[in-house]
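Holo model, NAI. Inputs:
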Amino acid sequence: MLVVDCTKDYCVKDISLAPEGWKKIDWVSRFMPVLRAIREDFERRKPFKGVKIAATLHLEMKTAFLLLTLKAAGAEVSAAASNPLSTQDDVVAALAEAGIKVYAIRGETREEYYENMHRALDIGPNIIIDDGADMVSVVHRERQELIDEIWGASEETTTGVIRLRAMERDGVLRFPVIAVNDAYTKYLFDNRYGTGQSTWDGIIRTTNLLIAGKNVVVVGYGWCGRGIAMRARGLGATVIVVEVDPIRALEARMDGFLVMPMREAAKIGDIFITATGNINCIRREHFEVMKDGVILANAGHFDVEISKPDLEALAVEISQPRPNITEYRLADGRRLYLLAEGRLVNLAAADGHPAEIMDMSFALQAKAAEYIKENHERLEPKVYTLPREIDEMVARIKLRAMGIEIEELTEEQKRYLESWEHGT
Ligand code: NAI
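Output:
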């Protein structure tokens, strides 16, 4: 029976799971030097004293460390999940124990997901930290009474930024948003190296299959797709890239991958991974020509990239051969295996990005929250990127933690780079 512990201050699966959650948080925090440095500074200065922060994030151990950092900075913090399948119940229990108003249970239904988001919003936040823009969207559609108190929000992922830019374009965005995703120290590392490694972690853990010798089809050659393709090659696969953007398709070819449309790739792929932020990239016409036993996984933000309705319509039988694998048996006997219900496989079937990666992304989130607090009065209801100095600060702390020193410009070089008089 599902145990659910709900009080006014939290809604978790089972509060007694907290000790396991603390162990996980303690482990990752050892590998997050940038966020640790920010936390020490925040603990001293308490920049968020009296500030209310509501977050919608994948509630696992690294995000937990971010939320604890904000609390240590003096904030009242509430949180809900950004995906019903990425929640780790033990970590959520630890957060509840630490006094964070957290409302999330792994596997919650869509209705419960939104109910919990509303509960997190009930604190009346000044700052929102979002991942996928669901919370900002709910505020604009259903909780407009909260808008006057909201100074701004920060957004973690590509899909969220796309939605927020659409809101800005349509003139409906009511407060400023910082696109943390668009910082260099986010997308260059998190989307590429983080998704690149953790997507494979999810697929390998779930299937226990060999990657070497397989045809891996990567759909979308953006920051995530590049990372996934790069690591697939390292594991010994033949990599096929499916892209709609001619420049990115060309880049994939020059990077040494095969490039073809989905209708061709569908016939020869063994493992398919979507990372586009787009809908129905793999659909009925593709399933119809796939080989028996193919693996389908998604790394994009929403579970819409591989068409589940089409799979359901084609299947004569649907079963669950292993945890996190759904088998769709077609009328001709072929079996197609969908991992983690088509949700981001690295979070729903593994632990998400490595700690060292989230260290940078969450350091940016913590600094973005401080930036909103300090600058909200002069910011307009637009989507902003973080100032370059914050990006560079994160990179410098990271390099220092890795024991790496870098070259510095001499005064002469600075003058040279700033002048226009010098030429041939
Ligand atoms: P991006 O915008 O850099 O790349 C997406 C690529 O997909 C583009 O090159 C686009 O041309 C291509 N594309 C769009 N529709 C397509 C189609 N029908 N067929 C083939 N290619 C298509 O975006 P990025 O940063 O790589 O993010 C991709 C998705 O992954 C987003 O939903 C983002 O939110 C999510 N994401 C997931 C993470 C995770 O932990 N799993 C981490 C970071 C981002």
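The mean pLDDT is 96. DSSP finds 17 helices and 17 strands in the chain.
Archived with the compound record.
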